[in-house]
Amino acid sequence: MIRDVFVTGGTGYLGQALIDALASRGHRVRALARPGSESKVPSGAGCVTGNALDAGTWAAAVPPADTLVHLVGTPHPSPAKAAEFQKVDLPSIRAAVAAATTARVAHLIYVSVAHPAPIMHAYIAVRSEGEALIAANRLDATILRPWYVLGEGHRWAYALVPFYALARLIPAWRAGAERLGLVTHDQMIRALVAAVESPARGIRIVEVPEIRAGLSGRGAAAAS
């Protein structure tokens, strides 16, 4: 089924590749871009100019989308960026939920983060608040929980691959190693496309193993 998809963060690390993938499969895509960044929106999408932190600047442009994919967030998150999570990540998901509710979007897709975890507490807290906001508004949603997405400009974590291999051999560490595992950029794009094409009823949580597998998740049925 061809979907009408509205993407926030369409000029970013995941957004550009996702738009290309969706357009190549025949989906109709529009992307939100801040003023001055319109040229960064891939040619396969229409462009809507607005402020991702203020739903009033773009919510009216969401219809006729049946799917809203929210990808806005602080680039290269780290413990040192706690203030940015409060200034960017949290207001942006609030705006996305408000826009999805106003536009009666059938399916919201949100990239959260794997948790619990021993680090990145401020980031996890903000993303968890985003998840709670989605639930409180009773939106049908797919929530993906990667820990770190390997790809261009995001390669340092390859150094951790031997540690993950060791951790999976130790029973007490195995569950954490799976939950906080690494996923590739291509795996994330495939999982996001699958989420668009197989929308959830209720809230579907997609953890790292399911992202790697291409999407299944728990907690919600897929709509036909």
Structure description:
This protein is of the alpha/beta class and 224 residues long. It has one domain: 3-Layer(aba) Sandwich (Rossmann fold). The protein is built from 7 helices and 10 strands. It has helices at residues 15-24, 82-103, 121-136, 161-167, 171-179, 185-197, 208-213, and strands at residues 4-8, 28-33, 46-49, 67-70, 107-111, 141-144, 148-150, 182-184, 200-206, 218-222. It has an 8-stranded mixed β-sheet with strand order 3-2-1-4-5-6-9-10, with helices on both faces. It is globular and about 50 Å long. 39% of the residues are buried.
Topology readout:
Elements lengths: L3 E5 L6 H10 L3 E6 L12 E4 L17 E4 L11 H22 L3 E5 L9 H16 L4 E4 L3 E3 L10 H7 L3 H9 L2 E3 H13 L2 E7 L1 H6 L4 E5 L2
Parallel strand pairs: 1-2, 1-4, 2-3, 4-5, 5-6, 6-9, 7-8
Antiparallel strand pairs: 9-10
Helix pairs in contact: 1-6, 2-3
Give a nutshell description of this structure.
The protein is an alpha/beta fold and 224 residues long. The chain is built from 7 helices and 10 strands.
